[in-house]
Amino acid sequence: MTASGKTFTAACVQMRSTCDVAENIAAASALISEAASLGADFIATPEMTSLLVSKPAELFEKIRDEGNDEALSALRALAAERSVWLLIGSLPIRLPGGKAANRAFLISPEGKITARYDKIHMFDVDLAGGESYRESRNYEPGREASVASLPWGRLGLSICYDIRFPHLFRTLAQAGADFLTVPAAFTRQTGEAHWHTLLKARAIETGCFVIAPAQGGKHECGRETYGHSLIIAPWGEVIAEAAHDEPGVILAEVDPARIAEARGRVPSLGHDRDFGLPDMAETRRVL
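Below the sequence we write its predicted structure tokens.
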């Protein structure tokens, strides 16, 4: 399937998720409804829409398997009520083996799950100032990329830290993706340094629209996230941005014709070549 040429309105929901699932469902539902009322056809929420906690015991006390997740059930019903395409950026979903999945869901205007994606790359880092994250302690990494059909073209799914792995996005584009979603809960520190640059680069490299809804502000659990949800055109222009870290909605008109235009100007997706890595010991000896 290729981009249809039909324009549509995309929206990012920016949140400040708490430790209370019911509270987060209510907040997400209000912002999704606001976006729908403003004319959005496709709405995306951030990573950890339903729950953002720092303690593993609290995480596993509050999460459920997919069939019993109350946020998934409520947001599916809301997508059907509002007749919109909804990308739930991610929910923490209990898995049978004792860990969780950081899972995104694409929901149709009929409320059906049409695609799932489990975050592949785990955020295991130590940042300056004492911030430390070990996502792999609690979450099972995904093993498969995901490209799904929308009425306007094909959607490639990712989550947050995935943005630092450009080969994933190139693979999605070469598999037919026209639009890329990057729901995130970027830390303020890494967001200030890299958020805009990385998202613009992925748009330019792939000739895709990038839709990146974010968490923002100081969370109940003590974590601070960057906000600045973005929608970026295939040539790298920011066409909508949340200029702060407060919860809210941003919207932009997405014209799929711009995808072919950008790829026609720089057709790099068709220029990949196979190459091998030289023997580095031999290379050093020669030099």
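The first strand starts at residue 8 and ends at 14.
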